[in-house]
Amino acid sequence: MINFQPIEPKDREIFERFYPFKTIQNSESSFANLCAYSFIYNGQWAIIDNCLVTRIHFEKNSHICYHYPLGNGDKDKIIEKLINYSKQNNEKMSVICETKDRKPCFEHNFNIKEERDFFDYLYLREDLESLKGKKLQPKRNHINKFNAKYKWDYIEINAKNYHPCLSLLNTWQEKAIEKNPELLAEYEKEKKVIEYLFTNFDALDLKAGAIKVEEKIIAFTIGSKINNETFDIHIEKADRDFEGAFAIINQEFAKRLDSSYKYINREEDLGIEGLRKAKLSYYPIKLIEKYIATLK
């Protein structure tokens, strides 16, 4: 019998055992994301045939979406077991997969739909750190203007000093809600996620940094490990009244990230035009394609 359990911060050690097998780089597979969004998606995990299998609920106890198994077991056999498990429990079953995961068991048994709005943007860490080249000249211009106008400091954020970041978040959200009141519910969810990340900072093994101008936090970012080579930026906020604030926190955080991380995943754009334009402006080396394979 398969025994799925809720994903909680205390399970981090179990997840870390599977990092040597983890080549996927999508943000949904991040341990911190699975924990932080559990109030929406009820993240769960189980060990099946020496593989870690995680899943979320698109509809609670009705439509279950699995992530591709991690480990050295037979993945096709595990997918078959999950198919049988879903049928026995009368659950609608889907799997989030990348192009390389579209194996015959998906082609034959699943309807596969591309989800462009959820493609992740993947960058080389050294590109975000150096901002070299003609294409990234506009980013360097923003940073030069910021440096010329402000005297600033970069500070490491941790479990004890994060509270000023929440003050910036409140200010940012107030302005965002004035501009897009229809997104109030989404902003409230995001705030709950950010508060969860900060209050579980050490347990989730998070890293964060902030830019301070005249003792005021004007930008911050927070992220965590996806696999041994890829770091995930969960949240990035900045006061738009400070031109170049987003560019400076992006670069300064990348500079201080451990060099063992070759890649930085800046997550999806959710189909938001401005966000898509901003992410593309950093010229990702790859868009991590996402497909939802739903059992026929």
- Would you identify the CATH architecture of the largest domain? 3-Layer(aba) Sandwich
List how many beta strands DSSP finds: 15
**What would you call the shape?**
globular
Distance between the termini: 23 Å
Task: Encode the helix/strand succession as letters.
Answer: EHHHEEEEHEHEEHHEHHEEEHEHEE
Quick one: biggest sheet? 8 strands, mixed
Question: Can you say what the CATH homologous superfamily of the largest domain is?
Answer: Gcn5-related N-acetyltransferase (GNAT)
How many helices? The count is 11
Structural class: alpha+beta
Supply Rg: 20 Å
Number of domains: 2
CATH class of the largest domain: Alpha Beta
* CATH T-level topology of the largest domain: Aminopeptidase
Level of helix content?
Answer: 25-40%
Mean pLDDT over the full residue set: 94
Low-confidence regions: none
- Fraction of residues in β-strands: 25-35%
A few lines on this structure:
With 296 residues, the chain is of the alpha+beta class.
Topology (elements, then pairings):
Elements: E1 5-6, H1 12-16, H2 31-36, H3 38-41, E2 44-48, E3 51-59, E4 63-67, E5 70-71, H4 75-88, E6 92-97, H5 104-109, E7 110-114, E8 120-124, H6 125-130, H7 137-149, E9 152-157, H8 163-179, H9 184-199, E10 207-213, E11 216-227, E12 230-238, H10 245-256, E13 263-265, H11 273-280, E14 286-288, E15 291-295
Helix pairs in contact: 8-9
